[in-house]
Design a protein that fits this description.
single chain, alpha+beta, 40 helices, 52 strands, elongated
């Protein structure tokens, strides 16, 4: 029994007037049994009744058929020979008695006296001081009658020498000795282990040549020379902590029988701790020894001490096992040299990108510093993965040499036995077109086997755990360990009902996470694991092979309908492919054969035209097979497996870079604060509850309630709901945490063509150059190409890369529109690149042109060219098409009109997409194939300008306006000309109509080139750009050359957020531009997934306007090809972020309210009824937290972004303001209770109550009032944080929460206001014992009521106080709502924020919208 007592007041000492409390009467008490030597001595009220025929009166005072086996209670466990006189029990008294002026300190004497007086054995005027006249039971008593108050049996004790205790000591002792012996043995064996380790680069070494010639050399990509190895040996091999990014530490391990046995013993021990805890809990409930509680551990106190001891040791053991789980198996192996190892442990630093918002707070900086120090100390930032050492044959056949390797993150690392090092490899087949064409004969089988042994099979295996294994993996985390250990305390302390509910919630949430993760993994598996059969040239013969057997250097036959399983270049023929699965761009792409020249092969640039990529599907190949069985279309395999673009993307999905956003950083601080607060509550609980082992359990309750198990999930619930809503709006997310980032996007970058503007361009006109004049001049623009000179017609009809698939023109949209405008047709040709036929008749004949050679469009050159033979004359004409800036530089100066720049600029300003065409006649040339590109594109005469109208999408302007209204800066990054881009920027609203746009471009020749700024309106040079910017209403635009100059001169960052348009940008330039924005702002990028893939992948939030359901180009993809998808993404992201914070604040409020509830009840040594606990933890916390996440998204973007700071001023003001109001009302209402005359002198007195029996400590006014006030506060917190503010709709639209809130308020109101009823009695509120309720004037209950553990037998509040209490609780709710609405979110909060900004100067990035 624990005498817990309020620390600062004595219960029932004085009344409201300061007078000493009178002792109260206590009713409903049961009299003890009276023992007599003869039944004739029993008082008349309890004299045995006459037994029926055949029955006997036995020693227990009752009639039985036989007295055999009937226990005499008056022996008190003794035998008849063990007592002086044998007493018999009078029948038990059928009623109850009431004690006048009940005094707990002499309660037994008062009870005996009152019972004796009731039975007429004591005079009516006698007092308790005179006693009952009846002796207390002893075994040598000689009196006539005795009270059957048996002496307290000595409590069973655990000697800790029992067999099971000795077994426990033995097991623990043996394990400790074995583990110490293993550690010593392992240390001795591994004393030189550090010298055996290898530092390895994750970058592959290139290999050239062939196995037959034995020519292998490292590329300059990384140094694998002896000197390079020595450089890597300079790194500290003690751990991977000091290694730079991209470097790995390799440690070899060999098996050991003893170590393996100890490893499995450690796993068994983990299960053993759980079994021991389960046995202790079962013993508490009497499930171990024949239904006897504490049958194993003897008594309650011992059981609690043993549980606490085992709980701490078991928890420490499991924490250690979890912390070391990735290295645990290898700890029980012996480290050895890598060539002798069976497994290799690969250690690498985890890459983490931290994205903060504004400046670090001091608290965050301190927490991060402590975290970093702990991480470095414990090596928590090191990932360790064990890879089995495998072998593969170097050459086919039995008995051949075998190569050893490991597979780490889908990449093969091969062991070089001569150096004892592991290294990954890639094969270089050549750097030029000619070098690649020379590989057209394919590989020999031995060479293919040799290469395959270096790089592995062309197949990425994605391991997806079975469902049971996935569930186990999910539970192997510190979060679930924390929950498990809290559940053990709840189960042990007779809180199993609530523990089962919470356990169910945890299990269900874990299963949902496992299902979602497995679905995602299965999607990746279906994307990655593809095999098929293809025709490959091996040993000079065409044979069918599995695509998994392809290696770089193989030559593959390409056929229509097949899926490409590798990256390669087209050696022969042509192919049309669908690359939408990689780029999201759902248009067919034509791939041409390599040119037989020394052009550098750049797969990321101009080489794309000749390259096919893994994951793309062939729509059409040039021909299936020729009669000679030689495939007409052949591809040289250049890259396989993770070296391909698709493989690299899959690898990034499987092993992503960890992003740590501002809320991730501050979550650590928030958890530390909560832990400290929980620790404070734990200490106060120990002090209040009597400094014994029972108080430890209550302290753990406080910590488990403050650190809610739902808290870690609160921040991801909002983003899950947002992702689901995005999916319903055809925006698909493959990286869930990016939803949060979408809520903080400050800058959104856009591609132009196909993104801001419509997908296709409309042909407008051609403005030809008139050559009949002495000086070239532009003629009138012509909308009908048929009216142009014949040479111009031939040029516009042939200078493109259009092809046909099933009668449909495919290719670049500009080329397709240009070709359609000519009216010519494409004819199949086996002898020429293309054959073109005119629709026009000339002398009754149709003109025919044969394309002999084509140089595809290259972004870096901004031009393309063709050599076309006129079938009628045999002359070869060269046509060059490109940007008007490029053609001005390469065309013959004599052919360029004087007003060329002005005319081209005029069309560009009018929003036209402007190209230029130049021409020269080579005459009758036989060997066109030998003509180099530079020679072919030089000395041409300008033909004219080709004009297209690039129209905005219908909703682009509205979307841009909404983004700007939502405080988001919009930027254009395009490959189009600067003036056209500026026109589109004005038309869509990025640039205001009255705003000056100043264009920066490089002017001058070669070394004299310099950056010049010109006003786009009048082409007037601006000398002082800084002065112009300071005047306001100025936007900047730059060309790619100007951008590169600014980057090189390190001036870009100064001007970056003044530049609205980036023009003529290459794909790499787009990615670089996005990266620069990301340095200072959360940046989004929207494009069609074509030449902006790099930028989409690089951005914090990339959105590909793709027809496919989910594109791996970027985290988000939308099949609705409108930039309104960007608005939707930001709206849902902001709503998701705000909703996650609402759930977070709700649970913090739950923690602060719960801690107040628990500490207050512990002060009074009361516990709120069990039904109230279940209502709070099972229904209110879980139900309202889920309902909070269902808030509807705001219809428009607000002019601000939601906070992402968990410990920011806005968040703290909301949480602690609500906490202060709630605490004030809770303590104020407790004070009000203590001022009630009906309460004072009826206070709960715990001096004779065992506080470990918490479920009987709620039948009092204190517990009742605490329950009611806190129930209102718990429920109201959800309404407080349901306010939509700017990012969610009005609170009334969250129907699920409104319904739940109303229902819970109604339930609690009924509990407060209603008279005693079945429902309130279930919660032990406004209820009491039936007799007492009748005495109070209520009707007798028809339902069962467990007797009240209270001297007065009820806790029914007076009517007036009920209404007062209810009104004050509603006032509490209204004040909390008003504080959040008016102060935190309303005008008061905005005023304080503006005042603070003016006082301290805002350090956040200010953007020009």
């Amino acid at each position: 029994v624990t005498a817990a007592f309020p620390a600062f007041n004595t219960p029932n000492s004085i009344d409201v007037n300061g007078k000493t409390c009178p002792l109260l009467d206590r009713a409903g008490l049961t009299c003890p049994v009276l023992c007599v030597r003869s039944f004739n001595d029993c008082p008349a009220d309890i004299k045995p009744a006459s037994c029926s025929d055949g029955q006997l009166i036995c020693d227990d005072g009752s009639c039985h058929d036989s007295c055999s086996g009937i226990v005499n209670p008056c022996l008190c466990g003794f035998t008849e020979s063990g007592v002086t006189n044998v007493y018999r029990a009078c029948p038990a008294y059928g009623g109850t008695v009431s004690i006048k002026r009940y005094d707990p300190s002499i309660k037994q004497q008062q009870l005996e006296f009152t019972c004796a007086q009731r039975w007429g054995m004591v005079a009516s005027n006698a007092t308790v001081d005179s006693g009952s006249g009846i002796a207390t039971w002893t075994n040598n008593a000689t009196e006539t009658m005795l009270w059957n108050v048996c002496p307290t049996a000595q409590e069973a004790k655990l000697t800790f020498k029992e067999n099971f205790c000795l077994a426990f000591y033995g097991i623990i002792g043996v394990e400790v000795v074995l583990y110490l012996a293993w550690h010593i043995y392992k240390s001795i064996r591994e004393r030189h282990a550090a010298s055996l380790r290898q530092v390895c680069s994750s970058l592959p070494a290139k290999m050239v040549g062939s196995a037959d010639k034995g020519i292998y050399m490292a590329s300059d990509k990384r140094d694998t020379s002896a000197e390079g190895f020595e450089h890597m040996d300079s790194f500290d091999k003690g751990s991977a902590v000091q290694l730079p990014d991209g470097m790995m530490l390799l440690r070899g391990f060999d098996g050991d029988v003893g170590g393996a046995a100890l490893y499995y013993l450690a796993l068994l021990s983990t299960c053993g701790w759980l079994v021991v805890l389960a046995i202790i809990v079962a013993d508490y409930y009497g499930k171990v020894k024949g239904g006897i509680a504490y049958g194993l551990l003897a008594n309650s106190t011992t059981s609690m001490y043993v549980f606490v001891f085992v709980w701490h040791l078991g928890g420490l053991w499991m924490i250690t096992m979890l912390a070391c789980k990735s290295k645990l198996r290898n700890y029980f192996r012996i480290e050895c040299a890598l060539p002798a190892a069976r497994v290799v442990q690969v250690e690498q630093r985890r890459a983490e990108v931290i994205l903060m918002e504004g400046e670090h707070s001091r608290l965050t900086a301190l927490a991060n510093a402590l975290r970093d120090a702990l991480v470095r100390r414990l090596h928590l930032d090191i990932s360790a993965e064990t890879c089995a050492l495998q072998k593969v044959a170097v050459v086919a056949g039995e008995g051949g040499a075998r190569r050893e390797y490991i597979e780490y993150r889908c990449t093969r690392y091969v062991l070089d036995k001569s150096s004892g090092r592991f290294q990954s490899y890639m094969f270089s087949l050549g750097d030029t077109h000619r070098a690649l064409l020379e590989k057209g004969n394919g590989l020999s089988s031995s060479e293919a086997q040799h290469r395959g042994s270096h790089i592995g099979e062309n197949f990425i295996r994605v391991s997806v755990a079975s469902f049971p294994v996935a569930v186990l993996q999910e539970f192997f985390s510190f979060f679930y360990l924390y929950q498990l250990m809290a559940m053990w305390v709840w189960f042990y302390f007779n809180y199993y009902k609530m523990a089962l509910v919470q356990f169910g919630v945890i299990i269900i949430s874990a299963l949902i996470k496992v299902v979602v993760r497995q679905r995602s993994e299965l999607k990746v598996k279906s994307l990655a694991e593809h095999k098929s059969v293809c025709r490959v040239r091996r040993d000079g013969q065409w044979t069918e092979l599995n695509t998994a057997d392809l290696v770089p250097g193989d030559v593959v036959a390409v056929e229509s309908g097949m899926e490409i399983m590798c990256d390669g270049c087209v050696l022969k023929g042509e192919v049309v492919v669908d690359e939408s699965s990689l780029t999201g761009e759902a248009r067919p792409v034509r791939k041409l054969a390599l040119k037989n020249d020394d052009i550098p092969y750049d797969v990321a640039g101009a080489g794309k035209t000749y390259s096919v990529f893994a994951g793309t599907r062939v729509l059409q190949s040039q021909s299936q097979r020729a009669e000679s069985d030689e495939p007409e279309t052949q591809v040289l395999v250049t890259r396989t497996r993770t070296a391909t673009d698709k493989g690299e993307l899959i690898q990034r999905i499987l092993f992503p870079t960890q992003y740590s956003f501002v809320f991730d950083e501050q979550l650590r601080v928030a958890l530390v604060i909560l832990l400290a607060y929980g620790g404070f509550g734990f200490g106060v609980t120990i002090w209040l509850m009597g400094h014994d082992v029972t108080s430890w359990f209550y302290g753990v309750f406080v910590i488990s309630q403050v650190m809610s198990p739902l808290l870690p999930a609160a921040l991801v619930v909002g983003q899950s709901v947002a992702a689901d809503r995005l999916r319903r709006q055809k925006i698909y997310c493959v990286d869930l945490p990016r939803v949060m980032m979408a809520g903080k996007v400050q800058v959104f970058c856009f591609d132009k063509t196909g993104t801001l503007t419509k997908e296709g361009l409309e042909f407008l006109a051609v403005q030809p150059v008139a050559t009949s004049q002495p000086q070239p001049v532009f003629g009138a623009d012509e909308t009908d190409i048929a009216r142009l000179p014949e040479v111009a017609q031939l040029g516009f009809a042939s200078c493109h890369a259009v092809a046909t698939v099933d009668g449909q023109l495919i290719g670049n949209p500009v080329d397709v529109e240009q070709f359609r405008a000519t009216g010519w047709t494409l004819q199949p040709s086996d002898e020429h690149v293309d054959t073109l036929v005119s629709p026009f008749t000339a002398d009754g004949q149709r003109r025919v042109g044969h394309v002999l050679k084509r140089f595809e469009f290259v972004h870096a050159r901004q031009s393309m060219s063709v050599a076309v033979q006129d079938a009628a004359t045999g002359d070869v004409h060269v046509f060059v098409k490109g940007s008007f800036e490029r053609l001005r530089n390469i065309a013959a100066p004599a052919s360029i009109p004087a007003d060329y720049d002005a005319v081209a600029a005029k069309w560009a300003r009018d929003g036209c997409y402007v190209l230029a065409l130049a021409h020269k006649n080579l005459g009758q040339v036989k060997d066109v194939a030998r003509i180099q590109r530079e020679h072919m594109e030089s000395g041409c005469s300008l033909v004219g300008l080709l004009l297209f109208r690039n129209k905005l999408k219908d909703d682009t302007a509205d979307a841009i306006a909404e983004l700007r209204a939502g405080n988001t800066r919009t930027v254009m990054i395009t490959g189009d000309s600067a003036l056209t881009a500026v026109f589109i920027a004005r038309e869509c609203g990025m640039v205001g109509p009255s705003v000056r746009v100043i264009l920066g471009d490089m002017e001058g020749e070669d070394d004299a080139r310099r950056l010049v700024w010109r006003d786009t309106a009048g082409d007037i040079q601006v000398d002082d750009i800084d002065h112009s910017l300071s005047q306001g209403h100025v936007e900047l635009a730059v060309t790619a050359t100007a951008f590169n100059h600014l980057v090189a001169s390190n001036a870009i960052r100064k001007l970056l957020f003044n530049i609205r348009v980036f023009a003529r940008m290459t794909p790499l330039g787009k990615a670089e531009c996005v990266g620069l924005h990301m340095e200072r702002a959360i940046t989004g990028m929207c494009g069609d997934g074509g030449n902006d893939c790099g930028a989409l992948r690089a951005a914090h939030v990339g959105l590909a306007l793709s027809e496919s359901e989910a594109s791996i180009v970027s985290p988000f993809s939308s099949s609705n090809r409108s930039i309104h998808s960007c608005v939707t993404l930001l709206r849902e992201g902001r709503a998701g972020l705000a909703t996650s914070f609402a759930a977070y604040k709700f649970l913090i409020n739950y923690a602060t309210t719960m801690s107040a509830l628990e500490l207050t009840q512990f002060y009074f040594s009361v516990i709120v009824p069990q039904a109230v606990w279940i209502l709070i933890d099972s229904f209110i916390a879980v139900g309202l937290c889920i309902a909070l996440t269902q808030a509807q998204t705001a219809r428009t973007l607000a002019p601000s972004r939601p906070t992402a700071r968990l410990i920011g001023s806005h968040t703290l003001a909301s949480i602690w303001g609500q906490t202060a109001i709630n605490y004030a009302f809770l303590f104020g209402l407790i004070g009000l209770l203590f001022n009630q005359h009906w309460f004072r002198c009826n206070e709960f007195d715990s001096r004779d109550i065992d506080t470990s029996l918490w479920w009987i400590l709620g039948d009092n006014y204190e517990s009742e009032l605490i329950s009611i006030v806190c129930l209102f506060q718990f429920v109201n917190a959800a309404a407080v944080y349901n306010f939509g503010y700017r990012y969610r709709r009005s609170w009334i639209t969250n129907y699920s929460l409104v319904v739940l809130y109303s229902a819970f308020i109604a339930v609690v109101s009924v509990l407060v206001l209603a008279n005693p009823n079945r429902f309130s009695c279930m919660f032990r509120i406004n209820c009491g014992n039936p007799d007492v309720l009748v005495d109070l004037g209520y009707s007798r209950p028809t339902w069962h009521i467990t007797p009240y553990n209270s001297p007065i037998g009820h806790n029914v509040l007076p009517h007036n106080f009920r209404w007062t209490l209810w009104a004050l609780c509603i006032t509490n709710a209204v004040l909390c709502l008003a504080y959040e609405k008016l102060v935190v979110l309303g005008p008061v909060g905005r005023y304080i924020k503006q005042w603070w900004i003016r006082r301290t100067s805002d350090r956040k990035l200010k953007l020009k919208l």
